Amino acid sequence: MSEPAHLTATRASYDTVAEDYTDLITALFSKEPLGRAMLAAFAELVRSGGGGPVADVGCGPGHVTAHLDALGVSAFGVDLSPAMVAIARRRHPKLRFDVGSMTDLDCVDGELDGLVAWWSIIHTPPDELPALFAEFHRVLAPDGHVLVGFHVGDECLRPERAYGHPVTYAAYRLPPEHIAELLNQAGLRVTAQLLSEGKKCPLACVLARKQI
Ligand SMILES: C[S@@+](CC[C@H](N)C(=O)[O-])C[C@H]1O[C@@H](n2cnc3c(N)ncnc32)[C@H](O)[C@@H]1O
Q1: Dihedral, CA atoms, 154, 159, 163, 167, nearest 10 degrees?
Q2: 148 within 8 A of 180, measured Cβ to Cβ
Q3: Given a cut of 90, is residue 110 above it in pLDDT?
Q4: Is the dihedral of CA 105, 134, 167, 162 positive or negative?
Q5: What is the pLDDT of residue 1?
Q6: pLDDT at residue 52, rounded to an integer
């Protein structure tokens, strides 16, 4: 069965930008104390439960996976883009990174104590988010935690270039209250939200927990 066109476009775009994206974003990550604070809270919650495994879905070059590992949780990364996964494996050879889609994770039901989607749900068409969050719910253990980060707004951007290269993906800015509602509807009860200023638009992180 052929995959949805948006996955093909997202994969091809990130394969193209992977090296330049990595240089830019890994430098920015060290200057994002608020996002890292949410990741620290997430890691502490996961450690107080089973401690992992945690999936970093749409992991890109793997810096967040490595950050979670350094925070003491057993994390692995999954990304649609083989070029991103190759970079993640090169930069973090002791960690596990798989090529795959967060829409169809290679995990048995209830396998994960946590799941992070850090600026990676932004390429999923909004009408497909309920199915995506149902997949997050499926792979999480009861009481497992999910943390999503995304750009705030209510629009679809179709840039012709990004990170110095041509791209064909769509990127969605999303209303946090709508994301919270969809997570709740999927059985992932929202426990905390952070709104912060960003360079081009506000940024949101939403933390939720799988209801028993
Ligand atoms: C903006 S980047 C974020 C990368 C990384 N999480 C970070 O914080 O820098 C979006 C990433 O999500 C990945 N991605 C988008 N849709 C995906 C999907 N359905 N399954 C897996 N990865 C996906 C892209 O390939 C890309 O690496």
Answers
A1: 120
A2: no
A3: yes
A4: negative
A5: 67
A6: 85
Taking the centre of ligand 1 as the mean of its atom positions, its distance from the CA of residue 121, in whole angstroms, is: 7
Report DSSP state, residue 95. Answer: S
Residue 201 CA to ligand 1 center (angstroms) comes to 19
- Domains in the chain and their CATH numbers? 5-210 (3.40.50.150)
Q: What one-character DSSP code corresponds to residue 186? A: T
Predicted pLDDT of residue 104 = 98
Tokens of 138: 């499926």
Q: Is 142 helix (H, G, I), strand (E, B) or coil?
A: strand
Name the nearest CA neighbour of 45 among 182, 180, 178, 189.
189
- Write out residues with Cβ below 6 Å of ligand 1: 7, 10, 14, 25, 57-60, 64, 78-81, 84, 101-103, 118-120, 123
* Neighbouring residues of 74: CB distance < 8 A, sequence distance ≥ 6: 51, 52, 53, 54
Instruction: Report the mean per-residue pLDDT for the chain.
Output: 97
Inter-CA distances, 73 with 18, 50, 110, 119, Å: 26, 9, 17, 20
Which of the listed residues 89, 123, 135, 199 should we mutate to test ligand 1's pocket, taking the one with most ligand atoms within 8 A of CB?
123
Cβ neighbors of 192 (< 8 A, separation 6 or more) are: 38, 41, 206, 207
Q: What is the 115 CA–ligand 1 centroid distance (Å)? A: 13
Q: How many CB atoms lie within 10 A of CB 56?
A: 31
